[in-house]
Every structure is written in C-alpha cells, then in structure tokens.
Amino acid sequence: MKIIMLGAPGAGKGTQAKKIAAKYQIPHISTGDIFRANIKNGTELGKQAKTYMDQGLLVPDELVVNLVVDRVNQEDCKNGYVLDGFPRTIPQAEALDRALEALGQKVDYAINVEVPDENIVNRMSGRRACVGCGATYHVEYAPTKVENVCDVCGADLILREDDQPETVLKRLGVYHEQTQPLIQYYTEKHVLKEVDGTVDMEAVFAVIVEILGA
Ligand code: AP5
Ligand code: ZN
Q1: Which of 26, 30, 93, 147 is positioned for an S-S bond with 80, CB 3.0–4.6 A?
Q2: What pLDDT does 49 receive?
Q3: pLDDT of residue 214
Q4: Which residues of 95-178 form beta strands (DSSP E)?
C-alpha cells in the first residue's frame, strides 16, 4: 500500500501518517523529519535545507527527489509506505511517478487532510516538538503528562523554528501556490481521497481506516 499524505502545514499529516504506519506496519517517511534530523546532525544537506526551511520556503526539488526515490527503493518499503511531506510540487510528483513506474508500481492513495487556513495558525502555535526523539504534541489537543517534558523520552519540548506565526503564514502561501495543485494531479489519477481534518485526531483516523480498509 503506497500512500501519500497531502494537506496544508499543520493539517495533521504527520499525526495521521504515524498512526497509519503503526496500524498497517509500513514505514513512515517524512521529508520534514529527514531534514530536521540532518540539521540536528549538522550534515551538508541539513545546512542547505535549513536556509529554506527557516524562511518557510520549500527546499529545492533536486535536494528532495533523489533522497525519497532512494528511500522508497529500500527493502523495508517493499510492502508499501506512507509519504508525509512529499511530493510537494508537480515536478516532485512526476519524479515519484517515474520512479514507481520503473518498478511497475503506482501510488494507491493520496489522502488530503483538509483544514481551513483559519485553524492552521492556532494548530501550529500550540504544537510542541521533542528535541530528543521528534515526537509531536499540542498544548491543548495532545498535551504531555508533565508540562514541556516528552512522554516518550523525557527530553524537553520546543516550538519549531518554522512555527512562528509569521513563518506559518509564509508556509501557507507557499502551500497554496506550489502544493495545492497536487490535489488536481491526484484527482486525475483517481487516487485522491478527501478527509475532514478539523475533527479530533481519532475521528480523522477512523475515516482514513475506512478508506484504507481495516
Ligand atoms: P514538514 O515537516 O513536512 O512541515 P509541514 O508540511 O509544513 O507539515 P507540519 O509538520 O508542519 O504539519 P503536519 O501536517 O504534519 O501536522 P501535525 O501532524 O504535526 O516540512 C517542513 C519544511 O521542510 C517545509 O516547510 C520545507 O521547507 C521542507 N520540506 C519538507 N518536505 C519538502 C519537500 N518535499 N519539498 C521541499 N521542501 C520540503 O499537526 C500539527 C499540530 O496540530 C500538532 O501539534 C498536532 O498535535 C495537532 N493536531 C494534529 N491533528 C489534530 C486534530 N485532528 N485536532 C487537533 N489538533 C491536531
Ligand atoms: Zn522525545
């Protein structure tokens, strides 16, 4: 099962992708997480990506495409995967299709998690990320047991640098311009599934499970 998560920044793609990966036992591949890990480890890729991410801009396609194509060709992706944050532009989607075609495969589902712009800034300003393991929380909707301490690994929580309100607005603009056209792209391929992302996380997941099958 090859699944793509679509949706605005903060729509809940990562939250749902983790749940899908756990239930269906397939890898969760988040390009945002891969870049953040590279930034944390001080790699060359991380240095390059950071300059774009901090401004709320997309990292250039050439830095992303090969990374994802290599990843989906790995052994653990044989039975499928859930891509979170990729593709984000039409050229990325076309590159993915070409890579899959070469393997005789295709995208099975493109799940679009729909949340209106008005809700996004609130979602992002309440999001907290663990500096240790990258787990994601929300001060209101997904709080930790102890304030600002990760439930999983005990490390501190931070507000992601690109979650400052000004950067969030920039990311939303970039989303509408560069990523939203993918909805049409995957509609034409007959794999698009629309999901209301404004209800609580479990309710969103229940709808996704109905689509994917139990
Ligand atoms: P990335 O990390 O992919 O950021 P994003 O797409 O902007 O998505 P987010 O991680 O911000 O949000 P999400 O939809 O996963 O929401 P979440 O589940 O956390 O990318 C970051 C940057 O990397 C990009 O800006 C770009 O620069 C670069 N990049 C990455 N991929 C790239 C690519 N392919 N090409 C070019 N550049 C790329 O939820 C948000 C919050 O809401 C959380 O606190 C959560 O707890 C809460 N929440 C979730 N669901 C619900 C719900 N149903 N109800 C209430 N609260 C909820
Ligand atoms: Zn943690």
Answers
A1: 26
A2: 96
A3: 82
A4: 109-114, 127-130, 136-138, 157-158
> What span, in angstroms and rounded, lies between the C-alpha atoms of 203 and 48?
38
Q: Ligand 1: which residue has its CA nearest to atom 5?
A: 9
Read off the pTM.
0.95
Cα separation, 183 vs 189, whole angstroms = 10
**Per-residue tokens: 184:** 């049409």
pLDDT in tens, 155-171: 999 999 899 999 999 99
Ligand 1 pocket, mutate which of 28, 30, 51, 59 (most atoms under 8 A from CB): 59
Spans of the chain, pLDDT less than 70:
none
Res 180: pLDDT: 97
Peptide bond into 87 cis (omega under 30): yes
Which domains does the chain carry? 2-116+168-212 (3.40.50.300)
The SS3 assignment for 58 reads coil
Which atom of ligand 1 is found nearest the CA of 203?
Answer: 53
Q: How far apart are alpha carbons 191 and 209 in whole angstroms?
A: 15
Q: What is the pLDDT of residue 209?
A: 98
